[in-house]
Amino acid sequence: MASTPSEPRVGTVHLVGAGPGDPDLLTLRAARLLMSAGLIVHDGLVSPEILAMTRGGARLVSVAKARSNHTMKQEDINALLVREALAGQDVVRLKGGDPFIFGRGGEEAEACRAAGVPVQVVPGITSALGASAAAQIPLTHRTSASIVSFVAGQCKGLSDQNWAGLAGKDRTLVIFMGLATAAQIAEKLMADGLAPETPVAVIENATRSAMRVLRGPLAGLPDLVQGHRVRSPALIVIGDVAAEQDTTVRAIALEAAQ
User: Fold this and answer.
1) Residues 48 and 146 grouped into a single domain
2) Which residues are catalytic?
């Protein structure tokens, strides 16, 4: 009896969180996948130290995205993952922070599932947690913050977004991708009733050797970002906890706005 040809192998797409930058903060599973993967499709914010952990001969494909400058459109990234997996290749999709926190991992998982490609998700330390820990800023605190919210600062229609109640007494607001819209963010929050003197911290290059922590009042947020030429990756923390600091953390304090 003639044997039937076996079905072509379909690879698995692993959506892997690379964390905020320090390789020591990778999960063990993420590290194992990096050291064994043959194909790694990675974000631009993944640190060189983490990429150096990949095995010799691995193919690295950068799909870096910057504001208004995308190496590859999201639809094309989805298609790349599906194409490689259907060709039998296991793929590590390496994303900064956590794949499901502003990482568009949900979209990539949906595209893979729709094409019949198996997906596994390896969570990472989201940059909000990594940055706040590195800066020794507790996002929650028994006496000053019982609620914490994560928002994207560069979403379309920022002025139309309802942020009422996200920041204020006993609350912490963490803003991802907010450098380019820092002025609009400060204006929006103050228009919603947040006091101009509300503490703000901007954390640049969290957990990396070049980390900076810049502090000041909400009203001075635009000057804080522009005056110190803050560059991505950076997070903005707003609330009373942003005033918490340790002198051992490399920080620059900006005096209150005149």
Assistant:
1) no
2) 43, 65
Question: Residue 27: which of 80, 106, 97 has the closest Cα?
Answer: 97
Average pLDDT over residues 32-41: 96
Quick check: is 258 in a domain? no
| 141: CATH | 3.30.950.10
Do 140 and 232 reside in the same domain of the chain? yes
Q: Is-cis flag, bond preceding 233, omega within 30? A: yes
6 domain residue, yes or no = no
State whether 233 and 133 are in the same domain.
yes
Query: Do 112 and 137 reside in the same domain of the chain?
Result: no
**Tens digits of residue pLDDT in 176-232:** 999 999 999 999 999 888 999 999 999 999 999 899 999 999 999 999 999 999 999
The answer to whether residues 247 and 136 touch, using CB atoms and an 8 Å cutoff, is no
CATH code assigned at 37:
3.40.1010.10
* Model confidence pLDDT, tens digit, residues 83-107: 999 999 999 999 999 999 999 999 9
**Overall number of domains in the chain:** 2
pLDDT score recorded for residue 71: 72
Q: pTM here?
A: 0.87
